[in-house]
Protein: PhiEco32-like amidoligase-type 2 protein
Amino acid sequence: MILRAQGNTAHTFKGKTGQKMTSNAKEAVEFLKRPEAGRWLLRLSRLPVTAKKRPQPGWRTYLVSLYQDQILHMSRMAEQEQWLLQSWDLPSYESVSLPSQDPEVNLVKTLAARSLYASGIDAGQVLIYAVSAHRAKVVQVIPDWPVELADQYMQLASEWWEKRQSMHPQRLLKLGADPEFALRKEDGSMALASDYLRIAGIVGCDTTRYREELAMHQHPVAELRPEPVEDPEDLFAHIWDALKLANQKMNNPQLEWLAGGMPFPGYPIGGHIHFSGITPTFSLRRKLDAYLALPLVLIEDQSCQQRRERYGFLGDVREKTYGFEYRTMPSWLVHPTVTRGVLHLSRLIANNHSLLQAAPHLQPALIKAYYRGEKLVLKPYVETIWRELRQMPGYQLSQFHLDRYFTILLSGQTWPAQDNLRKAWNLLG
Structure:
C-alpha cells in the first residue's frame, strides 16, 4: 500500500533535492473505490474506457504501475479463456521491457499516465485493454501499488523524482508562448496561412495535419513564436510586435484573423504557454489547470467546448529541454487585455504554485464544469481563487492587469472569438 494523504490535500515528503513528492489525496482514493465513478471521470477527460470484465478476442491486457508520468512496471497478458481466474504471477504473465519500440506499448504508456492524472492521484495502477497501436481502452485506475512491491516501487519513484528535479533549477527563468490564429476570407471561408507565411520564423504556420484533403504543403493555422523573456509585460510586447509583423507579411486588409478555440469546424487552435526552468510535476500542472484553465471558461465561447472533444484536456503538457509547454488553453489572442492577464497570471502561478491551495481535481463537479462549459458552477470558484491570488507574493507587481483580467472573467461576457482580432489589437489602420 502506498502513502496516502490526511485531510483534503495530498501528503508530501521531500527527497534529497528538497523538492516535495506528493502522494494520493484521500478524496481521490475514496472516489476511485467505485470503478464506475472512476470511468465517468475518465470519460469527462475524453479518455477511451470500457466496463467489460474481460477483453474481446485478440485484445491484450496490460497492468501499468506508475508514479506520476513514470512507468515503474508494465505487465502484459495475452487474451485467455479464463484470465480473470489467474494470478499475474502465473506463467501467462509477462513483464514488458521499457523503453519499447512497440507502438502499442507506447500508446498504453500514454493512456496510463493520462488516466492517472485525470483520476486525481499521483501513484497507482492502470488496467488497460489494447488491440493495436491505435486502439486501447482503460478499464480501471487503482489508487494503490501491490503491497508486496510498494517498497521497491517507492525506491524507483524516489530515484526518478530526484533525477527529474535535478534537471532544472525549479524556479521560473523565462516565460514564452506560441499562440495560434486562423484566417477568414470575405466570403466566410477559411484561408490558408501557408498562402501568406513560411513555416519557420517569429510568424509562421503550425504544421499540424488536420485534414487529409489538404496537400502536404498546405497549412491552415498561423502561429506566433515570440522570444521567451523573464517579464510577462515584455512577452506581451513581443507578441504585439509579432502580430504587427504578421500584418506586414500578409498585407491583405480583407482577411480577418480569428482566435479562440475552434474558429472553423475541425480546426482547433491553442495558446500554449512555455515555462523555462521548472519541471511539470502533477502538482504544478494541477495548479495551472486550477488557476489558468478553469477560470478562462467563464468567457469562452461554444467553440472552446468543441475543441475539448480532442484537445484542451486538463494537464496537457509537452516536456522540452528548457522546461515544458502547457497546452491546455485555447488561443487567448482574442483581446489584448485577456492576453496580458493570461501571461501575468502564468508567472504568478509558476512562482507561487507551492503556496496555492485550490484543488479542483478533487472536486468532480468542477472538472465536469470545465469540460462541459458550466459557467454558473465555476463562477463562485473563480471568485474564491481571485481572493486567494491577491494575497500571493508578486500579485501587486501585476495587479493592474490581473484586476482587469478577473473583472472581465466575472463580468458575464463571452469573448468575441468570431470578431476580427486585428481590430482589437489596432492593426487595421
